[in-house]
Amino acid sequence: MQILAVSADNPFSQQTFAESLKLPYPLLSDFVERKVIRSYGILNEKIMTAVRTFFLIDPQGVIRKKWVLDNPQTTVVYSDTLLKDIEGIIGKK
Amino acid sequence: MRQAAKHEITGILIAIAMILGAPDSSRAEMAELLQKLNFNAYSRRTIPPEFNGRTADGRDVSLASLRDKVVLLNFWATWCLECRPEMLTFERLHREFSAQGLAIIGINAREEAASIRAYAKELGLTFPLILDPAGKINSTYGVIGLPTTFLLARDGRAVALAAGPREWRGNPARALIQALLAEPAAPKETR
Questions:
Q1: pLDDT tens-digit profile of B96-136?
Q2: DSSP, res B55
Q3: Angle between helical axes of B2-36 and B171-181 (0-180°, round to 10)
Q4: Residue A68 forms beta bridges with which residues?
């Protein structure tokens, strides 16, 4: 399984963020064009950032599940919810 | 003749070894110092984003205006307890190394100029403290915790970052600053 995180922040900013949190997966910068964010249909045009969203993509490249956090301060996607769906695709380990 | 050629080749080889050897050894020394200080070094050439700001005492400062200097860019706030001892040490380093080309710049996080001025007066800080009322510079640099410090070399590259406080009072920090000050600035056309 591969975790990828995409945001509209510049690469320098992402690097600081990743180092600060010691993140073990890559952060991809969609700055300046926001092509990926737009193509996934989650660009907040007002503030030009991505609406916080999780996509679960299977090995064939098909989006199997999507969680949109319209209000990240009040909506939470629990890791065991994610894990359950991941296990549904790649099997339990 | 043969002997003379041999000497010439030996001379050239020594010269090449000196040219190649010096940057390698200083790079290794710097890497060791960064590790000692628990800094995260940038593994490839990274240019930090430009910023423009006004200090609490009304001076305009931009990254471009600091060209050819070694820049210690510290993100801080008056409420940040761990920032306080660092600020005192930065003031000492500023007084000691600014004439040699070290620019210590504090970038505040979303506070009023009046409270920054009061803090600077209380601690006796004289290096530039830039206001960032909307957090724009903090966000551009990806700062999510205070203090966060970036070290930038004379040639404009980002050398390392530290998320959290570091020991700036000891010899490793001074040696690191001195090693950066000893580096040449980049030629104009490469910046």
A1: 999 999 999 999 999 999 999 999 999 999 999 999 999 99
A2: B
A3: 130
A4: A53
- How far apart are the C-alpha atoms of B49 and B64, rounded to whole Å? 10
CA B48 – CA B151 distance, rounded (Å): 10
CA distance linking residue B63 with residue B69, whole number of Å? 10
Contact residues, chain B, for A21 at CB < 8 Å: 144
Give the dihedral of Cα atoms A19, A74, A2, B159; nearest 10 deg.
-10
This prediction has a pTM of 0.83
Interface check for A20 against chain B (CB to CB < 8 A): the answer is yes
Cis peptide before B172 (omega within 30 of 0): no
- Label residues B57-79 b or e (16+ Cβ within 10 Å = b): eeeebebeebbebbbbbbbbbbe
- Which residues face A29 on adjacent strands? A7
For B162-177, write each residue's pLDDT tens digit.
Answer: 999 999 999 999 999 9
The residue type of A21 is L
Q: Within the 44-63 window of chain B, which residues sit less than 8 Å (CB to CB) from chain A?
A: 46-49
CB contact under 8 A, B48 and A20: no
* pLDDT 10s digits, B8-35: 655 554 444 444 444 677 888 899 999 9
Beta bridge partners of A28: A6
